[in-house]
Design a protein that fits this description.
It is a single chain. The chain has 102 residues and is mostly beta strands. Helix content is 14%, strand content 54%. The chain has a six-stranded antiparallel β-sheet with strand order 5-4-1-2-3-6. A hairpin with a 4-residue loop joins strand 4 and strand 5. The longest helix has 14 residues.
Length: 102
């Protein structure tokens, strides 16, 4: 069984290594800096960024990259940004589960 100290270290590692988000409009990717990375009371690591396109558009994919330039997570989405909307707050919640084997 993994002990509490190991889970704390894993969560801290994820928080420290999260690098940036990328989002795709059509076939073009844009980078969004992480605005916050926190460990919630329930142990979930939340990594978030504000996505601010320069014009009304539809975002079709969001990705989380680590600070070594490696893809950690992605989600295909359909997020419409309308005229006058300043942007959207997007986050990835990362949960560490421990399961006992046979």
């Amino acid at each position: 069984m993994i002990d509490k100290a190991a889970l704390t270290d894993l969560r801290s590692y994820i928080k420290r290594r999260a690098g940036y988000l990328r989002y795709r409009v059509g076939s073009t990717f844009y980078k969004a800096d992480i605005t916050d990375a926190i460990i919630l009371e329930n142990g979930v690591v939340r990594v978030q960024a504000t996505i601010v396109p320069t014009a009304p558009t539809t975002i079709n994919r969001v990705e989380l990259w680590n600070n070594a330039g490696e893809l950690w997570a992605h989600k295909d989405v359909s997020i419409s940004i309308e005229q006058g909307q300043t942007g959207v707050l997007y986050w990835f919640d990362i949960t560490i589960e421990v399961k006992e084997g046979d």
